[in-house]
Amino acid sequence: MTTIHRKFTNGWRIAGWGSLAALLLLPALAMQFDAPGVLWTASDFVFAAVLLGFLGGVVELAVRLARGGQERAGYLLGGFTAFFTMWINAAVGIIGDDEWVNQFFFFMVLGGIVLSLVARFRPAAMRWITGAIAVGQPAVGVIATQTMPGHGVEWGLLAFLALLWGSAAWSFDRAVRQR
Fold this sequence. Notes:
Elements: H1 3-8, H2 11-32, H3 42-65, H4 69-91, H5 102-118, H6 123-147, H7 155-178
């Protein structure tokens, strides 16, 4: 078996990508049994496929590019937190359903992804990007309380997401300092 062939048939890779494909198929299967609340459109499946593909790409990136455990942890924490932020925001909205302020969470994560690509995923830049998002998400919650009185802000969720983003920033910082 050639090196290239082994690289693409690694059991962990097959299991990981296969698991993501199975997760994507679950709603389709549930819709066949008239499960209440499972009514996905084609755009829902496309959005889920893009997000799950992103998640798989993050794991691939962490495995291939990370030079140590701290850097790998930073990539994984940042990627999973970006995935959960986008998924939760699309499903129910972080601050109310269909509120304009939820767009900031999407743009913050998308901006972080673009900046990460521009910085070529260097840990020194990644610590600042993830740190800025850790501060930015609760700041959006504060803005929402000021501009939309009476709307509930999920402070527990925002604090949890900020903790995850901050942990990613801390992991990247530790990786930079260990070099």
